Amino acid sequence: MAIEHNVSRAYGALLGVAIGDALGMPVEMWSRKHIKDRFSWIDSFLPGPDDNSISAGFVPYETTDDTYMTMLVAKNLCDNHGSYSIQRFVDEVLQWDREAAKTKTVIGPSTRSALEKIQKGMTPVEAGKNGITNGAAMKIIPAGLVSSLESGQSLVSLVHEICKPTHNTDCAVGGACAITAFVAGCLAGKYDLPQLLDIACSYASIGERVGYETIGPSVAKRIHYALEITEGEHNDDTFLDCLYYRVGTGLPIIQTVPAAFAIVKHAGGDLLTAAKLAANVGGDTDTIGAIACGMCGAYQGADAIPLDIKESIEKQNPFSFLSIAEQLIEIRFL
To answer: pTM for this one?
Structure first.
């Protein structure tokens, strides 16, 4: 019974990544004002507008690099029985970059820079030492599905391994550890939402001790700040204003991860509520949505997702979400 329950959480987490990604895709990197002026409030899956140079040509329910990278990590972990092959990840992303027409617009700056360095002969570990954007966080959900909070150092080590080729920095590892710990805590099934948020912040602090040192604020303290500063904002619109104008919702991981955690808290862990909040906040809407909804999916399980949305996401994207979720849980229980 425990395994079946955790498969639902793992399936919900992977679907959550895709749902948040797809709902936020049309307005990726648009300002909060631009989104409000154009759509008023996004609450359904839309195509990429012709005037968005990033998402033009995407169709409703189609996902971006957030989901693709997440599933690459998930399959990597499955095929290596819980271990992670950096070289395989690098080879697969380079192949995708060569073959997929839309990668020029959706692959993030830290990942693209690292890939170019690797192609010129730099080792993957060195290539990622300047990665301070959210590419580490957007693909890390699967690590939480195979990790246990009882083996904390193993969790941090796995996260660091996944981050190395593109985001081998203290802030990136810290942010990714926070998400991984939240998801691992969900699968443990014995923590409520406030406890999970506390666990995430504690692991962010641990993760910040790993990777190349960067100049900037602590991601753990930024998560605390985002949760505290939005605490009294019960109205969705004023909450999103606070998040956009005071926390930030751009590419840096010190903005994206705190924003995602604040959305999870404001949504009460509800996946669809989090997806709508992320899509309307402005900035890196698809990545914030993917992270926040991946965490909410782990918190709620797949049963909380309406069947029509499940079917549309699975039809539009070439990923075996349920099969991969089952394999990840098998690894967790090895």
So the answer is: 0.95
